[in-house]
Amino acid sequence: MKTYARWLFAASVLPLAACAGAPKAPPAPPPPPPFAQADATFVEKASATNTFEIATARLADTRSHNAKVKAFATQLVSDHSANQDKLSAIATQHGVTLPTDLSTDEEKTIDELKAETGRKFDRDFLAVQVQGHTDALPLFQTEAQNTTDPDLKSYAAETAAAVQSHLNIAKNLSSPAHPHRGRRHPH
């Protein structure tokens, strides 16, 4: 009976001894610090910019009749969606959830564009893109120069280049393709 009790004791202690010798998991790394105020403001504005550009560009599918405008709009949706995904990942690491609502002015602009089709839509859509990208470019350039967050610095620099490209395309599509366009010719 004593032998049986010793075996039972040994069998019950062995698993505990095995656990005691197992290495402990390393502690989780500390979360990144919250954004500095300027970075938090940038993240909010950049997110709003992406959301608005995506919303306006999606209208071109049904409102534009110009293949070049539609192709540009498709590029805008793709690029700004990818930018928003990158920004969301950075924000999540800092415990921030990106806003998804449009401002009242942005909603008004979208409603106005929804009421248009064809050339009027193209003209106004491109004007919105030129203005929006003109306004956004310094936001991204300033963040790329001033932030100390390496992820935001990289994001802002890459996005500034894309915003500049979009601005150039919008301006080119907005300019008259024909020097006599818009002039009346006597009949």
Automatic annotation (TrEMBL):
Species lineage: Bacteria, Pseudomonadati, Pseudomonadota, Alphaproteobacteria, Acetobacterales
Name listed for the protein in its UniProt record: DUF4142 domain-containing protein
Residue stretches making up the DUF4142 domain: 38-173
Alphabetic keyword roster: Signal
Position of the signal peptide: 1-20
Gene3D superfamilies for this protein: 1.20.1260.10
